[in-house]
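B., you asked whether I could sanity-check this one before it goes into the benchmark set. Here's the sequence:
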Amino acid sequence: MRDGDGDGVRVRVRHGPPGWPAPVPPPEVEDWQDAAVTWLLDQAPPEYRGYPPVWRHPVLLVWLVAHHVQAQRDAVRRAVGTARRDLADQLPPEAAPQVFSVLELEELRLRRLERAVDLVEQALRGRHFVPRL
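And here's what the prediction gave me:
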């Protein structure tokens, strides 16, 4: 806890562990799971919203999203490995750095997403995060 604007009001500062998704309140906040489900559905293929068991059971949803993110990372790695061969006849040579830049940015985005999904999954399974100094 810390003092508010010097007026003696005590304010509890709450945040999740490093990598926690910004739109989701930390696990110690009441009803954080509702925000987690909404965020997870935003990370999932849109069809997942049509499957009631998926959004009714957050552990199932986070498990599926984790697999989905891993599949996206696998696809980016495959694209990096085959981009030159697959696109050589379709793009000018000067486009190659742009292609690899896009793939690198996507890999970084997916790594951050994978970390956030993992943290939410741990919290949904009951892990308590302890703040470090």
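One thing to flag: DSSP finds four helices and two strands in the chain. Otherwise nothing jumped out at me.
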